[in-house]
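Lab notebook, page 48
Experiment: co-folding of the full assembly
Goal: obtain a model of how the components sit together before planning crosslinking
Operator: M.T.
Materials (sequences as entered):
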Amino acid sequence: DTGVSQNPRHKITKRGQNVTFRCDPISEHNRLYWYRQTLGQGPEFLTYFQNEAQLEKSRLLSDRFSAERPKGSFSTLEIQRTEQGDSAMYLCASSFTTGRNNEQYFGPGTRLTVT
Amino acid sequence: GDSVTQMEGPVTLSEEAFLTINCTYTATGYPSLFWYVQYPGEGLQLLLKATKADDKGSNKGFEATYRKETTSFHLEKGSVQVSDSAVYFCALSDLGSNTGKLIFGQGTTLQVKP
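Observation: model returned without errors.
Model output:
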């Protein structure tokens, strides 16, 4: 088990461009989360998948953001028409256990810089 | 809504000093509580957890006790090492939403000097 992986690790883009990030969770994990972390802050929840179903989206996730998890395996997070305020670290986490023992395992993150 | 508050950093200690990082939470129910650590250039790693009142989580010499009466989950270590230098995040699991999403504090940077 190689853990949660994310690609790319870094992305620099110009304002107005679209970007897509990928997350590969731990293989047997059916739960997948996306978080966003800005400098000096803790991660903030963006969205949650159980298998292929997207069950919750944060109000932080504007219409420019979309996430998918086809076949309940890897997930993608797309940001359309990027803005400078989108610059952040985007973290993916996965878990298998439910309820109180829901331990989430995080990937290394994708750092987005919008110029 | 639920929230987590951590003491502000950075916390600077000499090697072998005693560490306390305060964490308090606000929640409508009784969430599970976690400490995550982020070493420079690395992702978040689960350090320890506690799932109910009076539980003590422990790992790598760190420990924290779930105190329902004071809504706290302070992180402690008896003797820190230079390798403990990192950012520490307290978090709670939002059981009310059925997703188990985590709500994090703002993080506390620990610097340990030799």
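Interpretation: Chain A has a mean pLDDT of 93.
Next step: discuss with group before ordering constructs.
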